[in-house]
Amino acid sequence: MSVVALVVDDSMLIRHTVCRFLEERGFAVESATNGQEALEALKRVRPDILITDIQMPKMSGTELITAVKSDPALAGIPIVIVAGKQSGFEHTEKRADYTIFKDINIEDQLAKALHAVLGAKSST
After folding, report:
1. Which one-letter DSSP state was computed for residue 3?
2. Could you give the CA distance from residue 89 to residue 27 in angstroms, rounded to a whole number?
3. Which sign does the torsion angle of CA 6, 11, 14, 17 carry?
4. Residue 117, C-beta contacts closer than 8 angstroms, at least 6 positions apart
5. Cβ atoms 31, 7 nearer than 8 A
6. Are 50 and 81 in contact (CB under 8 A)?
7. Which of 1, 4, 42, 58 has a Cα at 20 to 30 A from 68?
8. Torsion over CA: 57, 60, 61, 65 (sign)
């Protein structure tokens, strides 16, 4: 059984990079371009991990995290933030399990995030 990830980012390049990285490691990946789409996806799938940008149109990552954490059925899903290094979100958004930066080698950071958040599940 594969591990399911939901990737939420309005940047097509970041979304594609993260999705491809996860798929190459055997994850089943759903993606969304903003928080609203992610909430719709969460009605269909229960991901093992949620990877989200913070600054997005329609519904931000912060609003998405609030919605996920306030729903008892979703609250246990580990969350990884993808943010710009200069944004400071790693200091202000404390509800995420891990933060990676899009301006530094994203694949190296993703590998570390998956290991930290999912442990043995990440090496399927």
Report:
1. P
2. 26
3. positive
4. 49, 78, 80, 97, 98
5. yes
6. no
7. 1
8. negative
pTM of the model as a whole: 0.86
Distances (CA, A) of 44 to 4, 37, 75, 85: 12, 11, 16, 32
What would the two tokens of residue 92 be? 């202000």
Euclidean distance between CA atoms 89 and 94, whole angstroms: 9
**Tokens representing residue 60 in the block:** 């931000």
> Amino acid letter at 121?
K
Contact 26, 53 (CB under 8 A): no
Could you report the per-residue pLDDT of 43-101, keeping only the tens digit for each?
999 999 999 998 888 989 999 999 999 999 999 999 999 877 665 655 566 788 888 88
The 3-state DSSP class for residue 123 equals helix
Residues contacting residue 74 through CB under 8 Å, at least 6 positions apart:
42, 46, 67, 68
